[in-house]
Amino acid sequence: MATKGTKDTKDDGGNCPQMDTNVHEWTSGIERNRLCWRVQLGCWFNWFDWGGNPERMEEPFWLAMIRSGAIACRTREAFEGVEHFSPPAVWTFHRFGKSINELPDGRIVEVAGEHEDYYDPDFHIYNDVVVHHPDGRIEIFGYPEEVFPPTDFHTATLVEDYLYLVGSLGYVGRRRIGETQVYRLRVGTWVMERVETRGAGPGWISEHKARYDGAGKIEVWGGQVAVMQGNEAVLVDNEARWVLEVEKGTWARG
Question: Which one, of 226, 154, 224, 139, lies nearest residue 190 by Cα?
Fold first, then answer.
């Protein structure tokens, strides 16, 4: 099964898109003072002193944003005292560049992703995991950045009990030219691990596709790779096909 980071609806013109959602309905049971505080500071949880792998994020406002489908800028408008163009970002699940996988037991796992672009006050690249259960329950898991960095436009490929997360676009300035970001997420415990790889790989790849061949290898193709041209990092098309041998952690051309 091929997986690819998804693109959600975004606005490229600086205007807030219209959404037929009512975040008030989903947040009506949350204390007003706590709700407004979470609107303003919700997604910046890495400011706080926690460090679990994973950390279960018991945050009613985040659950409300997931269930309502509300976008950050409309949420700013919905609650008085939150100015439309003032940082910090509003936590939102309206993202692009996230991965979505349906597991054999019916659970759906969504990993990380990005909201808007650098010019927007709600721009943020996430490093969380959201698990949707068939009975309607939703679990949110967070990670310290040193365990799982902000990630977007990656792929998530199921290999036995792990989702292998390959690639990322990431923040400008944090892209490690020549390296390929690989993590694996243990299904059930949701522990995140960095995968050390060897051999010549695709480099800092994003917006690609991936599939498991059923014989211990993940095939990666398409997308774009960050490379240096002079003193500037630029994105170029990935024209090669790559293979990651999962057990050995070795890259080779396909």
Answer: 139
Q: What is the pTM of this model?
A: 0.87
pLDDT tens-digit profile of 154-198?
Answer: 999 999 999 999 999 999 999 999 999 999 999 999 999 999 999
Residue 220: pLDDT over 60? yes
Long-range contacts made by residues 98-101, C-beta under 8 angstroms, separation at least 24? 98/5, 98/6, 98/8, 98/126, 98/152, 99/3, 99/4, 99/5, 99/6, 99/154, 99/155, 99/156, 99/163, 99/165, 100/3, 100/6, 100/156, 101/3, 101/156, 101/158, 101/163
| Beta bridge mates, 150 | none
pLDDT band at 151 (very low <50, low <70, confident <90, very high): very high
- The set of residues, in sequence order, having a beta carbon less than 8 Å from that of 105 and lying 6+ positions away, is 134
The continuous run of DSSP H or E covering 159 comes out as strand 155-159
Q: Give Cα separations from 23 to 35, 84, 93, 117 (angstroms).
A: 11, 16, 12, 23
The CA distance from 225 to 167, in Å, is 9
End-to-end, the C-alpha distance of the chain in Å comes to: 17
Average pLDDT over residues 82-92: 70
Contact 99, 156 (CB under 8 A): yes
Q: Which uninterrupted H or E stretch holds 62?
A: helix 60-68
